[in-house]
Amino acid sequence: MIISEKAEALKLKLVEDEFQSHYDQRVLYWLFGLIFLSNVFINVDHGSLPGCSNNIKDDLGIGNLEFGTLGSIVYGGLTLGSAVATWVYRFDHWVKPTLVLTLAMNCLTLWVFTLTNSFYFDAFLRFLLGFFQVFAVIYQPVWADTFAKEGKKSTWLTILILASPVGVVFGFSITAVMVRYETWRWSFFIQ
């Protein structure tokens, strides 16, 4: 290793030690767990929707094409939300208010989705769900990269990436059981 590489490694170590000294590791682990669970629950509806497809189609009186629209339009919201989030997250002072607002709006949108029987309004709500979900999804890896220790960053990022399919599988599984006893709407209430 040449001297400049050693100096750079030492500088990175000193910066990380100084940064980490300002944060209680237990609080960071607790926050990471909360972020992981939020990522799991953000993705529950992506499994719930196919888990109750027949029930939704019967309830709303729609066919396969319309149901496919409900399942896919969320990605339009994710795409638009990604562009907006990229712009919003350039301003540090907007991060927390944006996360709080978009998570609250995500919950409200899900709740309204369970109350309506209009396909067009439900499609609009699914678009909004994608839009609001993406703000948290984009910020989570940034948070992990910022607050994880250098040797733990890849582990934390891997766990966060795992949360998405865990949420989908959880949503599908719980919905498959739930629709036998309750309306399909309950799986979205759980989210």
Question: Could you please describe the fold and organization of this structure?
Answer:
It is found in: Membrane. Keywords: Membrane, Transmembrane, Transmembrane helix. One of its GO terms (molecular function) is transmembrane transporter activity. This is Major facilitator superfamily (MFS) profile domain-containing protein. It comes from Strombidium inclinatum. There is one protein chain. The protein has 191 residues and is mainly alpha-helical. The chain has one domain: Growth Hormone, Chain: A. Helix content is 83%, strand content 0%. Helix 6 packs antiparallel against helix 7. The longest helix has 29 residues.
**Distance between the ends:** 51 Å
How many domains, as an integer?
1
pLDDT < 50 stretches: none
Mean pLDDT over the residues: 89
According to DSSP, the number of beta strands is 0
Roughly how many Å is the radius of gyration? Answer: 20 Å
What would CATH call the homologous superfamily? Answer: MFS general substrate transporter like domains
β-strand amount: under 5%
CATH class: Mainly Alpha
* Class from secondary-structure proportions: mainly alpha
CATH topology: Growth Hormone, Chain: A
Oligomer: single chain
DSSP helix fraction: over 70%
Reading the helices and strands in chain order gives HHHHHHHHH
- Assign the CATH architecture: Up-down Bundle
User: Could you give a short account of the major beta sheet?
Assistant: none
